């Protein structure tokens, strides 16, 4: 169970790492500014509600929606955060190495043969123990197995 928990923790640590910084597409940006210029010119020449201006503004909108540069920006730009994420990754790696060592030791211990314990001499019950057993059996026969007297007699045996 612990192994599964640690494996899940290791695999989910990458989710907290900041995304790599992507470069902006310069061609997309210049195409967007050219499209905006063309749409502005069409709006001035044919009017803001003309078919020509509407088509050009739709093109500008499509170009802007294709720009995914915001998705590639890091969520958090913080050196302390990055340092803590790196420390967490190192700890998880260390823990994984330790778990691998524990597994290796456990596998090595499987091959160790244990000596069979030697049986000691049987101990004969004492006279007091024999008397307590006889009293408990007699109480069970006389008063019933679930009676208070029988239970107290068996408790004495224990």
Outline of this structure?
With 158 residues, the chain is mostly helical. The chain is 71% helix and 0% strand. It is elongated.
Description of the structure:
The chain has seven helices and no strands. By secondary structure, the chain is mostly helical. The longest helix is centred in the middle third of the chain and has 32 residues, at 79-110.
* Low-pLDDT residue spans: 20-24
Distinct helical segment count: 7
The main pleated sheet reads as: none
What share of the residues lie within helices?
Answer: over 70%
Q: What's the count of strands? A: 0
- Radius of gyration from the alpha-carbon trace, in angstroms: 41 Å
- Distance linking N and C termini: 39 Å
Percent strand: under 5%
Structural class: mainly alpha
* Overall pLDDT: 79
Shape designation: elongated
Order of helices and strands: HHHHHHH
Topology:
Layout: H1 2-13, H2 26-46, H3 51-66, H4 69-72, H5 79-110, H6 127-143, H7 148-157
Helix pairs in contact: 1-5, 2-3, 6-7
Features:
7 helices, mainly alpha, 158 residues
């Amino acid at each position: 169970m612990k192994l599964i928990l640690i494996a899940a923790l290791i695999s989910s640590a990458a989710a907290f790492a900041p995304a790599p910084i992507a470069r902006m597409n310069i061609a997309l940006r210049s195409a967007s500014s050219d499209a905006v210029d063309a749409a502005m010119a069409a709006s001035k020449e044919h009017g803001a509600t003309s078919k020509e201006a509407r088509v050009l503004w739709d093109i500008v909108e499509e170009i802007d929606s294709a720009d995914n540069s915001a998705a590639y920006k890091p969520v958090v730009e913080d050196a302390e955060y990055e340092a803590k994420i790196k420390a967490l990754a190192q700890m998880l790696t260390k823990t994984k190495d330790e778990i691998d060592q524990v597994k290796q030791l456990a596998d090595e211990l499987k091959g160790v043969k244990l000596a069979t314990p030697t049986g000691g001499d049987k101990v004969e019950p004492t006279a007091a123990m024999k008397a307590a057993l006889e009293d408990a059996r007699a109480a069970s026969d006389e008063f019933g197995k679930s009676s208070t007297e029988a239970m107290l007699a068996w408790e004495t045996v224990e």
